[in-house]
Specification:
By secondary structure, this protein is an alpha/beta fold. It is built from 11 helices and 31 strands. Helices cover about 20% and strands about 25% of the residues.
């Protein structure tokens, strides 16, 4: 369940060997006696570290079957390669999401029922198929809730049928909390010293022509919002929780998410939050109307999409809502007449992203929608919370009026950037926005100050709307890259991981050719790898290293060097401003090789630029470039002015004798 808090534990742990496999050496490349792989001295330490780290988690039933003391299997064994997502401690489930293989047998309901028949019998439950999700998954329901080992065994036995690609619980998520507008002066998050510097961005764009979907609790009527609200949809399929008596419908009205003592896992009663109305106001409150507050993107339009109600909302409903919001097809639901190019999701739960979530996000991004999500309010590493840990999202942490990370905010390398989320413990330190005054059912329109990463995310979603208003052809990857480039250092500092820093709306819009001059510094973030993997992506965790092999500091990137067939990919995406005259790349490279040839390039490092789907190799280095120390390599990037570029270091090693490519002190500069 996705709810106002983050309470779920959800792990998918795989046990995999590290750098295993047989090496076949060719006779002309035999190593001198006693010579070994360049990385060989580190294999034991890395393998032990991986083993110890893995033992801290329970292995998924997909990849390991626990045994009793007598060595016999303690539970059903799932088919190798079928994803079975773990259950949360203390949570029980009646609904599960199953992705069936495309086979003739699975083409009918009766055929699909064979996949869960044995599992249902084992658990003593009756199962029915409810509907097909927009992701392609199928939602099934048991007549009795399953929890703990029973739920895990149920899913594992479905996987063991060999008929499905993945199965996971239908978990619940919760919400993560110079205009003439009279309360604009209270919006420190827009204009304060440690705010987001929003007014300068309005000199470039105000959001005209852009639609933002707010996937949340729905919306209530409000004179400071109504003019910017388009028709939305209610995706809450549980009619009782929805409080509208009919489940899904075309009315996105927030009916209230209040609960009584003892409900929703809470010992005391709670009033309705009107969370979606508050979030929508931050994105696009009507501005310059002599009423209330201002929105980040005052001329953008909001499509309210209701997925959260009493006790939160289900993963299956949220997944459908994501796809619908971006203009995708959801079975049985009318098409969205106003597809969004920006989606805000101020909600979440703990655990791994999961197959359903990622499929829905991928669908939205493929349609050109930037998905902005809250990092979470648990003061923990965001890597353990979804959807903040999903791929292709913009994950936002929360700052306070002092310009440091808010006490409740999640943090870490999963965070992309930080935006004002507030601290209500400080006088005037919350985020002021639109709400409803009703304690349970809707009352009158009003205003209130909230705090949370729920409040930080819509600041960034509004900024993304300004960006799309200025440059409508920006892709989601370009929006994310520019958002990260447009940050400034956290005024109050941050040691736990605030992404690239505090969002700066004026600086960000300047990168798109606004009034602010283009940056003259390094466009690459974490250029010397001193913060490990921050701002870089690689297909190997051991790419990011520390030690005396660094050119400066202690961090560097190390590719290949295993003496067997390997491929390493190291990427960072950035935007080259259109207003610059030149752009250039420089980096320092050291090559260490076990190869003995002086004429054959057996192992190579390609430096590539990827833009608009085209990959261009700028330079190639190999074992023939072996060097005792680092050498600087300059390359021209002027052809990429006004474009989003992914810088890629691609190391490819053949089947024997290693070559180790060291990369450090990278820079992309403009003039």
């Amino acid at each position: 369940m996705f709810t106002l808090g983050y309470h779920l534990i959800h792990h998918v742990t795989t046990l995999t060997p590290l750098h295993t496999g047989h090496t076949c050496a060719r006779s002309e490349k035999e190593a001198p006696m006693g010579r070994s792989s360049i990385r060989r001295h580190r294999i034991l330490a890395l393998s032990l570290a991986a083993a110890v780290g893995t033992l801290a988690f329970a292995s998924s039933p997909v990849f390991a079957t626990p045994e009793d003391g007598d060595g016999t299997a303690a539970g059903p064994a799932a088919v190798q390669g079928t994803a079975v997502h773990d259950v949360a401690a203390g949570e029980s489930y009646t609904k599960f999401i199953v992705e069936f293989k495309e086979t003739t047998a699975n083409a009918t309901p009766n055929g699909r029922a064979n996949a869960w028949g044995k599992a249902a019998k084992s658990q003593g439950v009756k199962v029915q198929e409810l509907r097909t999700l927009a992701t392609g998954g199928t939602l099934i329901e048991a007549d009795r809730a399953l929890s703990g080992q029973a739920a895990e065994d149920f899913m594992a036995e479905i996987a063991a049928s060999g008929s499905v690609d993945y199965v996971e619980p239908d978990a619940r998520m919760t919400v993560a909390l110079t205009p003439n507008d009279p309360r604009y002066g209270e919006q420190w998050d827009f204009t304060g010293t440690n705010g987001m510097r929003v007014p300068g961005a309005w000199d470039v764009a105000t959001g005209t022509g852009v639609t933002v979907a707010v996937i949340d609790t729905g919306i209530t009527a409000h004179p400071d919002l109504d003019a910017n609200v388009l028709p939305g949809y209610d995706f809450v399929s549980d009619a009782t929780a929805a409080r509208d008596g009919n489940g899904r419908d075309a009315n996105a009205q927030d009916q209230g998410d209040w609960y009584a003592a003892g409900e929703c896992g809470q010992s005391t009663a709670g009033n309705s939050s009107w969370h979606g109305t508050h979030v929508a106001g931050t994105v696009a409150a009507v501005t310059g109307n002599a009423t209330g507050v201002a929105g980040v993107a005052p001329n953008a339009k909001v499509v309210p999409v209701r997925v959260l109600a009493k006790c939160g909302g289900s993963l299956s409903d949220i997944a459908d809502a994501i796809i619908w919001s971006a203009g995708g097809t959801v079975p049985g639901i009318p098409a969205n007449a106003n597809p969004a190019t920006v989606i805000n999701m101020s909600l979440g739960g703990s655990g791994a992203c999961g197959s359903t979530y990622q499929a829905a996000i991928n669908s939205a991004v493929s349609r050109g929608a930037t998905v902005v999500v809250a990092a979470g309010n648990s003061n923990q590493n965001a890597s353990g919370f979804r959807p903040a840990n999903c791929n292709s999202v913009v994950s936002v942490a929360a700052s306070n009026p002092s310009g440091s990370l808010s006490y409740y905010s999640n943090y870490g390398t999963t965070v992309d950037l930080t935006a004002p989320g507030g601290d209500v413990r400080v006088a005037g330190g919350g985020i002021l926005s639109t709400i409803n005054t009703g304690t349970s059912t809707p009352g009158s329109a009003g205003y209130a100050s909230y705090q949370g990463t729920s409040m930080a995310a819509p600041h960034v979603a509004g900024l993304a709307a300004l960006m799309k208003s200025k440059s409508s052809t920006l892709t989601p990857a370009q929006v994310e890259s520019t958002l990260k480039q447009g940050t400034r250092a956290m005024p109050g500092g941050c040691t736990t991981g605030c992404g690239t820093g505090l969002s700066d709306a004026t600086k960000t819009m300047g990168l798109l050719g606004g009034a602010t001059p283009p940056p003259s510094g390094n466009l690459l973030l974490n250029p010397g790898f001193e913060s490990g993997a921050a701002s870089w992506t690689s297909d190997h965790a051991d790419t990011f290293e520390t030690g005396t092999n660094a050119r400066t500091g202690s961090g560097f990137a190390g590719l290949n060097g295993w003496g067997q067939a390997t491929s390493y990919m190291l990427d960072q995406t950035f935007a080259v401003p259109s207003t610059v005259a030149t752009a250039s790349l420089s980096f320092y490279l050291k090559v260490q090789s076990d190869e003995t040839t002086s004429s054959a390039a057996y192992d190579t490092l390609r430096v590539q630029a990827v833009s608009n789907g085209v990959t261009t190799t700028l330079a190639t280095y190999s074992n023939l470039n072996e060097s005792a120390g680092y050498l600087q390599k300059p390359l021209d990037l002027s052809a990429y002015k006004g474009k989003s570029v992914t810088l890629r270091f691609l190391g490819v090693e053949d089947s024997s004798l290693g070559t180790y490519f060291y990369v450090d002190d990278t820079a992309v500069t403009t003039s």
